[in-house]
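Good morning N.,

You mentioned wanting to compare the apo and holo forms, so I went ahead and generated the holo version with zinc ion. This is what I fed in:
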Amino acid sequence: MHELSMAQGIINAVLETAETNNATEVNEVTIEIGRLAMINPEQLEFILGVLIENTIIEDAEIKIENIPVEIECDDCEFHGNAVIDDKDHYAPMVKCPECGSYKIEILNGKDIIVKNIVIEKPDD
Ligand SMILES: [Zn+2]
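and this is what came out, ligand included:
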């Protein structure tokens, strides 16, 4: 299951950052998901909820933001956000909003990024 390994990677990155900063607790984690990351956001959120149990992330608010797909069109040279037909999360179709072409280059929107972590430090 793709979402499981992604979730594990996210949790490891957050825990590592928290440890490096001597955090006692993680209050908030913001994750950006590209629309083409081949991830089902609800499923990812569910798995994250399970994985953070009994860790210092347990009580954190997990925010998931979907980021748009940026493309460049081979046919009309449009540059910007694509139109996505993602009724199927695992096989989204991306096309140019200007001319409807599928001959496009994808510049952004394939990644999952931990964008922000809010931590709590011991108050001494
Ligand atoms: Zn176009």
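Residues 73, 75-76, 78, 96, 98-99, 101 surround zinc ion (CB under 6 Å).

Happy to go through it together on a call whenever suits you.

Best,
F.
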